[in-house]
């Protein structure tokens, strides 16, 4: 039986935070869209969200902030527009960590 230590639990905090951020299907849809459309702007994302209900700009901003907070998305300004792209290093880290769960 594997006993969790304080150190091992502390090491798992970033993974847990990332998984929590992905715990909403709209945020997964945003991530998928940005993966397919790097350097897109928020309005483009908003137009391509699932049709399961109204999505306000303020709600989109909250979702984008949560994905940026865990470093899955990066943003930058291009004039008045804010552009988004996936942090490929962070996504690779996530794949590696999740793969490690199957060992």
UniProtKB/TrEMBL annotation:
<keyword id="KW-0805">Transcription regulation</keyword>
<dbReference type="InterPro" id="IPR036388">
    <property type="entry name" value="WH-like_DNA-bd_sf"/>
</dbReference>
<dbReference type="GO" id="GO:0003700">
    <property type="term" value="F:DNA-binding transcription factor activity"/>
</dbReference>
<dbReference type="InterPro" id="IPR051081">
    <property type="entry name" value="HTH_MetalResp_TranReg"/>
</dbReference>
<protein>
    <submittedName>
        <fullName>Transcriptional regulator</fullName>
    </submittedName>
</protein>
<dbReference type="InterPro" id="IPR001845">
    <property type="entry name" value="HTH_ArsR_DNA-bd_dom"/>
</dbReference>
<keyword id="KW-0804">Transcription</keyword>
<feature type="domain" description="HTH arsR-type">
    <location>
        <begin position="7"/>
        <end position="103"/>
    </location>
</feature>
<dbReference type="InterPro" id="IPR036390">
    <property type="entry name" value="WH_DNA-bd_sf"/>
</dbReference>
<dbReference type="InterPro" id="IPR011991">
    <property type="entry name" value="ArsR-like_HTH"/>
</dbReference>
<keyword id="KW-0238">DNA-binding</keyword>
<dbReference type="GO" id="GO:0003677">
    <property type="term" value="F:DNA binding"/>
</dbReference>
